[in-house]
Amino acid sequence: MIGTKLSLVRRNHALEHATMQIFSAKRPGVRMAGYSNPQGFWVFGDIEIEELRDTVEEAQRRLRAGESRLAIHPHCGTNFAISGLAAGTAAWLAMLGSDGSLRRKLDRLPLVTTLVTLVLILTFPLGPKVQERVTTDAQLGDLRVVGINRYMRGGMPIHQVLTRDLPGA
Q1: What are the tens digits of pLDDT across the range 49-91?
Q2: Are 56 and 25 part of one and the same domain?
Q3: Disulfide-capable partner of 59 in 18, 73, 83, 149 (CB 3.0 to 4.6 Å)?
Q4: How many CA atoms lie within 13 A of 48 on its CB side?
């Protein structure tokens, strides 16, 4: 059960990323964000439902044709989470032993800045690798889009792309 849900999230995440990348290439400058779950994914942004439907269909076709690179998004939260966790850990390590003195903490600021910068540089390629191996799966298998709904929340259009595994479809 858990493995099935994780598989759905990973494949939906890949389809979300592919959709966003294709849409961004067609309409540069459009601000969007996405979120995936076992039922599909959400797209936040001012886009037309028909254009989204066409883009999702293209994303499915291209992923199935082997364009797995579309599943890795440069602005994915995974990238930020990996870098943030590593940078926070580096900052914490740099502050060990500084006691409670403000002066000792300020004296360590150059060390903290250097370590955090170094860690951010070193972890930059790690986020896409984690996407590729852990948080997305470009092999959609039997995953199919079964509906797209549009909602308005606080004046912002939100689209829900519903998916399901449909063997033999």
Answers
A1: 999 999 999 999 999 999 999 999 999 999 999 999 999 999 9
A2: yes
A3: 18
A4: 4
